[in-house]
Amino acid sequence: MEHPENSDEYKGLTVNKGIEQPSSVNPYLRNGQFRRQSKLSVAEYVDGIVKGNVSVLGRAVTLVESLRPEDQVIAQEVIEKCLPYSGNSVRIGISGVPGAGKSTSIDAFGLHVLKDGGKLAVLAIDPSSERTKGSILGDKTRMERLSLHPSAFIRPSPSAGSLGGVARKTRETIVLWEAAGYDRIFVETVGVGQSETAVHSMVDFFLLIQLAGTGDELQGIKRGIMEMADGIIINKADGDNADKAELAARQFRNALHLFPAPESGWTPQVLTYSGFYDLRIKEVWDMVWAYIDFVKKNGYFDVRRNEQAKYWMYESINETLRSSFYNNGKIASLLEAKENLVLQGKLTSFVAARQLLDIYRESNTL
Ligand code: GDP
User: Fold this and answer.
1) Which of 63, 68, 215, 285 has the largest count of CB atoms under 10 Å?
2) Which pLDDT tens digit goes with each residue over 29-59?
3) From the CA of 48, how far away is ligand 1's center (Å)?
4) In what order do the strands lie in the sheet with 152-154?
5) Which is the closest atom of ligand 1 to the Cα of 100?
């Protein structure tokens, strides 16, 4: 029926018919055409990654981090197909105790290394994130400026599994980031122990952030961690702390003399800087690039990467065997009983281990 206001009496006024209201439910969602989490094929993952599609890349990284065996099968295929596109980056490990200024420094370092273009991925290995859930390395707001940079991507630590497992996942995701064109990779870790070894085994340069001002700088610093460092940088060299930082730098230089010469032929350097006030950031990075030039010329860059490839092959075997053993149903059902027998002194550790391994072997050959 015609609206009464369209009659001649109301000439000049028109009332439109109106349109049918659309459903509030997205029709594509309803019929499944537009489900964001629809599974991609291996080829779609690889294609998206190589084209630098950040959303596909993020999903692929999630797949690598997934503990589900069916996800792992796809993830491994994606990694393999991405391998030919990877390797073309500089990988930097950044370590320091909590409070040393890692986040603040990475924010400043990231902006510095992106000045001349390129793409940066900041990854993390945080063995504590499983326990603390809210990972201290997971919070994007820690790197305020960098997290807004269009060419930077900050990814929190994979949080599930053993340190070996978490580190392996990070190592694997490096392949994906590189295939997506990220030519600078930062791998951050908390400087409190084992995780440095894992990071050291996947980076070209290991940067150790230290602090001055405690009066006993060299105490409590594990010799092994210092030995791994290609560069030691003393942060917070600003204001009243500047002199103390210089003093600490001298002490570190002296301490480094006592260590055997590194295989790279490079003498690790000690610098002071301030991440917060952006002081001498350039010097830090001139050192890193000088190292990369040096080891590319003398061949050590490739030697180190080959060594790392070997290390990860064995790590991968160990990790796979380990999880296959502990996830074996028979083993899982017997483990506690055997452990109790050992605790009660009724069985030696070695015999218990042998028996369990025999059972595992048998169950695998059935
Ligand atoms: P992280 O735990 O190693 O990631 O350390 P943060 O980056 O969170 O820094 C810990 C604290 O040190 C924060 O309060 C920072 O503001 C402060 N800080 C970091 N870098 C500097 C610096 O260069 N100078 C000064 N004075 N403070 C800094």
Assistant:
1) 63
2) 555 444 456 789 999 999 999 999 999 999 9
3) 37
4) 152-154, 120-125, 184-190, 90-96, 205-210, 231-234, 269-272
5) 3
Q: Compute and round to an integer the Cα radius of gyration of the chain.
A: 27
97 CA: nearest ligand 1 atom: 3
**Cβ contact 291:275 at 8 Å:** no
Q: At what angle do helices 300-326 and 329-343 cross, to 10 degrees?
A: 80
The whole-angstrom distance between residue 43's C-alpha and the CA centroid of its chain comes to 24
Phi, psi (rounded to 5 degrees) for 185: -125, 125
How many A from CA of 227 to the centre of ligand 1? 24
Decide whether any atom of ligand 1 lies within 6 Å of the 275 Cβ. Answer: yes
**In the chain, at which residue ranges do the beta strands (DSSP E only) sit?**
90-96, 120-125, 152-154, 184-190, 205-210, 231-234, 269-272
**Ligand 1 centroid from CA 359, angstroms:** 52
Can you tell me whether residue 260 is helix, strand or coil? coil
Cα(130) to centroid(ligand 1), Å:
24
Looking at the DSSP assignment, which residues form a beta bridge with residue 188? Answer: 94, 124
With a 6 Å cutoff on the Cβ, whether 98 touches ligand 1 is yes
